[in-house]
Amino acid sequence: MQPKAIIAALALASGLAQAQNPIIHDQFTADPTARVFDGRVYLYPSHDIPPVEKLEGWFCMPDYHVFSSADLVRWTDHGVILRQEDVPWGDPEAYSMWAPDCVERGGKYYFYFPDAPRGQKSFGVGVAVADKPEGPFTPMDKPIEGLMGIDPCVLVDDDGKSYIYWAGMGIRGAELDSTMAALATPPAVMEGLPEGFKEGPFAFKRQGKYYLTFPWVRKKNGTETLAYVMSDNPLGPWEFKGLIMEEHPNGCWTNHHSIVEIDGQWYIFYHRNDYSPKFDKSRSARIDYLEFEPDGTIALVKPTNRGVGVADPYDRLQIDRGVSAEGKVEYLDKDNPFDGWYIRLKKGEKVEFPRVNFGGCAPSNMVARVRTKEGARIKVNGLTMDVPKLEEWRTLRAEIFGRALADADTLTVACTRGTIDIDWMQFFRDETEQAGTLNGVYFTAPQGFFSLPDRQGFIRRWHVLEPISMNIRTNVIFTDSYLREVFGHSHFGGQQTLIPTDGQTVEVGDSVQLAWHSVESTGSNVQLYRFAGLTGRPVYGVLFWAVTVIDCPEALENVRLAAGSNSASMWWIDGEEVLILSGDRRMVMDDGMSARLTLTPGRHTIRAAVINGPGMSNFCARFIDENGAPVTHYLICEQ
Ligand code: FUB
């Protein structure tokens, strides 16, 4: 089935998109430590800001925010939880609040953070405590004694013991005492790690094995990979196992990560300088899936822009974050990377956006922010959107039909003509349609006893019977004789005489009860396909009956009934056949016309039968005069 795309300009207000990579869109977020507390994921990153003068070209980190998410897709910023000015022992102007961690123990949340002690050129690690994961956190008066270094990470073991790891002349570790703020054992260099610069330790336990993971510069003049060692003991000795992630392809020197299991799936949180391509000390947190091999080793993670989680297509999908072998991804505005990206697709290229959930509902509209110099055509899971030439970015809407997307879990956008830039896409379902009411976008309830033909003379008020199911696979069978036979067959009592009321039912075939609905179509074409969907009936292989009554205050002389339908139809006035539209038809206004008619003053019944196999059923009907002008001086009434 080929849908028809209607394109109209829309002015949509800009809003926050869902979080593909990077996951936080309005600030830099480095060194992301993720923890799960009470089923919710909390993210404790550090916060890069553009460097103050004395730190030009270096890290500049004044405070910490905490973020949380229930689905790894939408993130809530709970605001600042600790500022450098709040740390009693810290230099309030050092901007040295590097990679933190947070763990829960006995109902308290312990936040570990590096900072520069006042008057010293080194780093200490402080602890701030809260009753809730999002704070408020109160920093302790002094840093952890005997610990000099950065990037603290705490492992709370199954036996209740806790261990702290940090970076300072290699990776070190020690047991914490029960206060969670003092070392219970002397710091020890972790043995068994590879040569080369290392920092940012993150330790976790899985299936009885300890994993110590860390950023590692494996090559001379290289940048950081993520690597790991394993052990049977929390403080080693360790055995080197290999890489978790290779160097960033864009040259970002640091990487820093955390690894967490959420509902049985493992994830890696890490960073890259997505929003700061020219300065790699302004970084952004990302997430990807992480898998273990059967022997417990970690499979190499290839960073993606798509990230993790299931996206809601009824919210904006940053289609440029999809997977594309050929499409070129560019910043929307090179001077303002926080504006995000777009993807350029040439004819024959495509982008796939995996893990979308339409919830089994067929969207009725597709909206895309696009630009194309010469005009282009895209196919979205086979649904066509023709885009006219647009020099500037525009938001376009295309009406879509059918259920092609309802069960899709990957959105595939392919360019089949021209070249197109796509920023985002969003789908809309007609909420009233979902609710199954006929008082919505395509139909409203008729108001009062009378309605008028519209300005073009179209009759919008009808009683429509829920469609009768027919086993029709093709519309080529709709010859005049076929139609006369099918429409002449008695499907229900009063087929040619009944003027129904809203909700009245008729019995069709063997005990199938179908209801009549009184509707006012919101457009001049009566969208029977939508009507069928809204009434919960089949939309293909269907026979519709429609009736309306007109009241002529004076005679309508030499008028013609002009109708169009998808697919074939037959029309009667006061029980007399006046028009047949046979064959496999598309709906075109005035597609067929009756002979000249004169309608006497008073009431007349117009009845239509529309039959369709695999197409989108609809019809339109009006009276026109001898010059083809619409006839409008009559009333359409309830009975
Ligand atoms: O964010 C500042 C430092 O950069 C971190 O502490 C290191 O791990 C590196 O990511």
Can you tag this structure with a few keywords?
Tachylectin-2, Chain A, binds beta-L-arabinofuranose, 11-stranded antiparallel sheet, Jelly Rolls, 639 residues, 3 helices, elongated, 6-stranded antiparallel sheet, 44 strands, mainly beta, 3 domains, disordered N terminus
Indicate how many domains the architecture comprises.
3
| CATH-defined superfamily of the largest domain | Glycosyl hydrolase domain, family 43
Which segments are poorly predicted (pLDDT under 50) over 5 or more consecutive residues? 1-16
Largest sheet: 11 strands, antiparallel
Mean pLDDT: 92
- Would you state the CATH class of the largest domain? Mainly Beta
CATH fold-level label of the largest domain? Tachylectin-2, Chain A
CATH architecture annotation name of the largest domain: 5 Propeller
Which ligands are bound? beta-L-arabinofuranose
What class would the helix/strand composition place it in?
mainly beta
User: Terminal Cα separation, in Å?
Assistant: 38 Å
**Coarse shape:** elongated
Count, helices: 3
- What's the gyration radius in Å? 34 Å
As a percent range, the share of strand residues is 35-45%
Helix content: under 10%
E-strand count: 44
